[in-house]
Amino acid sequence: MTEVRHDWTKEEISDIYHTPLLDLIYRAATVHRENKDYAEVQISSLISVKTGGCPEDCAYCPQAARYQTGVNVHAILPKEEVVAAAQKAKAGGASRLCMGAAWREVRDNRDFDKVIEMVQAVNELDMEVCCTLGMLTESQAQRLADAGLYAYNHNLDTSEDDYKRIITTRTYDDRLKTIENVRKAKISVCSGGIIGLGETVEDRISMLKTLSNMPQHPESVPVNALVPVEGTPLAEQPRVSVWDMVRMIATARIVMPRTVVRLSAGRTEMSTVEQALCFMAGASSIFAGEKLLTTPNPAFDEDMAMFELLGLTPRKAFKNGRPHQAKNIEESVIA
Ligand code: SAM
Ligand code: DTB
Ligand code: SF4
């Protein structure tokens, strides 16, 4: 097993990122095989439980109220609909359901009560439950943990320096604070970013430095390729090259050897060959199901055919136990 470090310098991460491509893939694949079952892929399915009308100004996001993007704005879904989606996702091979809400932050109101009920109901289906609801206080994180929440997604998106260019309605520190609150409640942390926002390679490296120097690495790091959506300020951004995706995934794999690196948004634009390269470079998780939150994603059947072809297998839910039953989060080795 590779030593898990928390003191990576920018220079070290940059050297890794700029390694000749095939050497980089080889090194990442080696780290992957030394630390994980490289043929096992964790599958999450997303559902948007509250869509659109968000007060934030995230420049990439189709759900921000201030951009005219034509998303199907809706209030919080009934629990039954979420349970039905969870059952469908489970039948499609997903071990985890991730519920997203277009909120700046959680408020202690009826809608949060409803989310808590959804978490309990999906947990009862023996699926891992993840939420991404915006900023959380310590007590809200604890309430989610008590309801059986497995993971919380809260992305850093880009570097601290670049953050103001992408989002002005909250700060990087706000983001880090929520991640800390999630940690304190012993919920598994899912935090990563987006490439293709117009950031520099230095910004990507700096974001990886922040993630890999956390006292405990996030159990999951999503690497999203920007899905440019008409009406958002980033609609005209050129698509990111698959080589950038591969470099980002491989570098994340090397600096956070035991983390699940998630090949996230952008797969509809990628061929099976390109996705295979990402798995080779250390990706060990995907979002499956025909929709991400508001944009298209490959269907379950297509992904299962790809798994069959590549010899990959879906990871079972709660493979290493339920986090809140373990004495501590490290021991449960959750991902
Ligand atoms: N409102 C909550 C928040 O911002 O944390 C949760 C939902 S938000 C849509 C979750 C994540 O989706 C964002 O942090 C961002 O990384 C990702 N995302 C949103 N729009 C995207 C896009 N167009 N392309 C790629 N990733 C996107
Ligand atoms: C993450 O890192 N990517 C997912 C999930 N976490 C919540 C969301 C991607 C959203 C892509 C744009 C959309 O479908 O609205
Ligand atoms: Fe709102 Fe989240 Fe979209 Fe930002 S990323 S506009 S906070 S839904």
UniProtKB/TrEMBL annotation:
The keyword RNA-binding appears for this protein: no
The pathway where this protein functions is: Cofactor biosynthesis; biotin biosynthesis; biotin from 7,8-diaminononanoate: step 2/2
Q: Known InterPro entries for this protein?
A: Aldolase_TIM, BATS_dom, Biotin_synth/BioAB, Biotin_synthase, Elp3/MiaA/NifB-like_rSAM, rSAM, rSAM_sf
- The answer to keyword Iron applying to this record is yes
Q: Which residues form a coiled coil?
A: none
Q: Please tell me where [2Fe-2S] cluster binds in this chain.
A: 98, 130, 190, 262
Q: How is the cofactor bound?
A: Binds 1 [2Fe-2S] cluster. The cluster is coordinated with 3 cysteines and 1 arginine. Binds 1 [4Fe-4S] cluster. The cluster is coordinated with 3 cysteines and an exchangeable S-adenosyl-L-methionine.
Name the EC number(s).
2.8.1.6
Q: Which CDD domains does the protein's record reference?
A: Radical_SAM (cd01335)
Q: Which Gene3D superfamilies match?
A: Aldolase class I (3.20.20.70)
Keyword annotations of the record: 2Fe-2S, 4Fe-4S, Biotin biosynthesis, Iron, Iron-sulfur, Metal-binding, S-adenosyl-L-methionine, Transferase
- According to its UniProt record, which protein family does this protein belong to? Belongs to the radical SAM superfamily. Biotin synthase family.
Summarizing the function annotation, the protein's role is:
Catalyzes the conversion of dethiobiotin (DTB) to biotin by the insertion of a sulfur atom into dethiobiotin via a radical-based mechanism.
Tell me the protein's name: Biotin synthase
Q: Which organism is it from?
A: Mucilaginibacter aquatilis
